[in-house]
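FAQ

Q: What does a record look like?
A: Structure on top, sequence underneath. For example:
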């Protein structure tokens, strides 16, 4: 399938109400058709059964006319059958195209192969952490909270989160989200991060806010964490 053919197909799936709603969550993103994520996943699945690689090779080097086209490319890279090395290569080619939190987070959530090959994906996350681009760093933070909260990686992952260099809002929000997930799953390893003020004030306070919003944290622990908030 050629990119313009897929574009016409996506336009046929447009939901104007959803376009307005989703657009309100993505300030500054003006190229949204308005296709719901389940339909995007189905479209990607259908494309995988025919000519996904032909489409991807044509679409990846090009500028995308619509947000949904970028999402589809990410879904293909994450879910099409291919070797580990091929997928890693595609991921590296795709990361520079990520320009908003939604593409980033949908992509990360779909990269379930990371559970099978944690070492290879850990190296990918390390590389993304060192990249100056904001959405490389958000990719790293979301991958950490999604796939690396286990005992083997938690302490190293938390160290990475405290050293993300970008001050971009969406990077700091992802770091706060990640710390909150780590606290829920690895409280003993995460609490010292907050007690010792290892994060910038914004990320620190947002992490505590997100932890306190969780039903998996006891009222007593929430009360203690609120006392750690910085001014």
């Amino acid at each position: 399938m050629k990119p313009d053919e897929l574009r016409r197909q996506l336009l046929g799936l447009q939901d104007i109400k959803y376009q307005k709603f989703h657009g309100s969550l993505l300030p500054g993103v003006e190229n949204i058709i308005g296709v719901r994520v389940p339909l995007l996943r189905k479209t990607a699945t259908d494309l995988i059964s025919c000519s996904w690689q032909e489409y991807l090779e044509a679409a990846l080097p090009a500028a995308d006319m619509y947000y949904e086209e970028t999402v589809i490319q990410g879904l293909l890279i994450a879910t099409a059958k291919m070797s580990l090395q091929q997928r890693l290569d595609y991921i590296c080619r795709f990361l520079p195209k990520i320009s908003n939190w939604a593409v980033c987070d949908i992509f990360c959530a779909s990269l379930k192969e990371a559970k099978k090959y944690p070492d290879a994906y850990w190296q990918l996350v390390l590389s993304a952490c060192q990249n100056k681009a904001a959405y490389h760093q958000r990719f790293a933070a979301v991958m950490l909270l999604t796939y690396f909260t286990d005992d083997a990686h938690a302490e190293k992952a938390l160290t990475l989160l405290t050293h993300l260099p970008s001050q971009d809002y969406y990077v700091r929000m992802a770091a706060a989200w990640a710390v909150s997930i780590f606290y829920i799953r690895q409280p003993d390893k995460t609490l010292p991060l907050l007690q010792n003020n290892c994060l910038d004030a914004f990320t620190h306070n947002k992490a505590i806010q997100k932890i306190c919003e969780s039903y998996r944290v006891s009222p007593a622990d929430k009360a203690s964490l609120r006392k750690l908030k910085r001014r």
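Q: Is there anything notable about this one?
A: Residues 169-185 form the longest helix (17 residues).
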